[in-house]
UniProtKB/TrEMBL annotation:
InterPro entries: BamD, BamD-like, TPR-like_helical_dom_sf. This is Beta-barrel assembly machine subunit BamD. Residues 36-221 form the Outer membrane lipoprotein BamD-like domain. Pfam families: YfiO. It comes from Flavobacterium cucumis. Keywords: Cell outer membrane, Membrane, Signal.
């Protein structure tokens, strides 16, 4: 009996392959569509894509094209071809504004851009594009069942942008370009007031201000020491129990010591 089922499975596989090859080489659009859909249902998305690509030009503008283009777009998504999938989902949403699948297509299209967003250390152009796409979906469908996921994406993408900006500012501190570091941290704190990196930014701004002041020429030293002390106060005001407090207190002691010479 087990041999029988084994032969049956092999026969089904060969029949499926034969059917696919027949459809692939056929001029019969209906056959291609039928086999493409069966490949999609079976999870054989790459094979489905090849057939959908063949019939797509013939389906444009036809009443039965809506389902085909959604399945084609979703096949690209399932195979992680996110650039093409995002493009196709956007076309679907534009071409079928009354489709019951439009909301899902709009979300999946935005999700494709989210998946294309690179790690924070790389150029963040695609991250901004993803933010725009996901935000547009939220604006269009504020009550969508996809909303929780979309909000997660927005948060993650924004943190990635903030991480990029923070690391750029921190790099100036690392290479001892303290003037550039101060400007970068000021911009960062202003641009991202609610960032999870704020405490770190406040500390490195203090460190940059401290280093610049301590090593400054006499004509600018007092002014810079006073500013450095203000950056200490900003850090402690933000978090009086900061993990950087010990280091910050050491800097403050040195700042106050240096300032004493100006109070005589």
């Amino acid at each position: 009996m087990s041999k029988f089922f084994g032969f049956l499975i092999i026969a089904i596989v060969f029949a499926s392959c034969s059917q696919y090859q027949k459809a692939l080489n056929s001029d019969d659009i209906a056959l291609k569509s039928e086999v493409a859909n069966s490949m999609y249902d079976a999870g054989k998305y790459n094979k489905a894509i090849r057939l959908y690509e063949q019939i797509a030009p013939s389906y444009k503008g036809k009443p039965n094209a809506e389902r085909m283009f959604f399945l084609y777009s979703n096949s690209l998504y399932k195979t992680k071809q996110y650039y093409l999938a995002g493009y196709q989902f956007e076309n679907f949403s534009a071409n079928y504004p009354k489709s019951e699948k439009r909301e899902e297509a709009t979300f999946l299209g935005a999700e494709c851009y989210y998946k294309l967003s690179p790690v924070y250390s790389l150029d963040q152009t695609d991250t901004q594009k993803a933010l725009d796409k996901v935000q547009r979906f939220i604006d269009l469908y504020p009550n969508s069942t996809f909303l929780p996921k979309a909000n997660e994406y927005i948060k993650e993408l924004r943190v990635k942008q903030e991480k990029k900006s923070f690391e750029i500012a921190k790099q100036y501190n690392t290479i001892s370009d303290f003037k550039a570091a101060l400007k970068a941290f000021d911009n960062f704190i202003s641009d991202y007031p609610g960032t999870p990196f704020k405490e770190q930014a406040l500390y490195y701004r203090l460190d940059s201000a401290y280093q610049l002041a301590i090593n400054s020429v006499d004509s600018k030293k007092q002014e810079r020491l006073v500013y450095a002390k203000s950056t200490y106060n900003n850090l402690i005001k933000f978090n009086s129990n900061s993990e950087y407090k010990a280091k910050a207190d050491t800097m403050l002691a040195e700042i106050d010591k240096e300032l004493q010479q100006y109070s005589k």
